[in-house]
Amino acid sequence: MTTTRQTRQTVRINGKRTVLTTRNGKVTAKAADPLEWELQAAQVRRLRGMPEYGTQFLLAGDQNSAKRGPTAQAQAVAAGMTAGEADLRIYLRGGQVRHIENKVGNGRLQPVQVKRHGELEKLGHTVVVLRAVSEQEAADKAEACVREWLTEPVAADNDNAAAFADDHKLQ
Question: pLDDT tens digits, residue range 48-101?
């Protein structure tokens, strides 16, 4: 009985990530899926380029999954980094915050992400999981999401600007 042995390895060829698969002595190569941070970076570039950026919305990104040594990990946790936090926070007019989580293709949410996203949703925060297999697709989906959020009416019960002004009046 013949057994089939297969190996996979991701390498860089001409600067591009490539998956090499060896099966029964035959090697095939195909472009590797982008890394999650590359999807996020493409989204940030696109969103910051929108004319509404800075006047109707702002954004902030997280990379909680970054590899850290024990000291850096302890410092990050002590400073408030929270496991499972979404990749991008979108700050909208009227004190609204929305969250975007990125996954490459059919990548699964980690249990800590499922828990954190559920906790945010219980407090009324929207968390959207965007799945993409290219930077272009990720940027298109993020822009569509933000454009949809910008068309929603501003919540009347969130008057942060007035409260801030009242708290900071000159005496």
Answer: 999 999 999 999 998 776 667 888 878 877 877 788 889 999 999 999 999 999
Q: What kind of fold does domain 36-151 have according to CATH?
A: Trna Endonuclease; Chain: A, domain 1 (3.40.1350)
Q: Starting from the edge strand earliest in sequence, which strands make up the sheet with 26-31, in order? A: 6-13, 16-23, 26-31
Residues of the chain with CATH 3.40.1350.10: 36-151
Residue 35's nearest CA partner among 10, 61, 60, 72 is 10
**pLDDT for the residue 136:** 97
Write out the two tokens for 29.
């190569």
DSSP 105-166: TTPPPPHHHHHHHHHHHHTT-EEEEEEESSHHHHHHHHHHHHHHHHHSPPPTT--HHHHHHH
Residues 72 and 64: their CA atoms lie apart, in Å, by 12
pLDDT value at residue 75: 83
Residue 160, token pair as written in the block: 């942060």
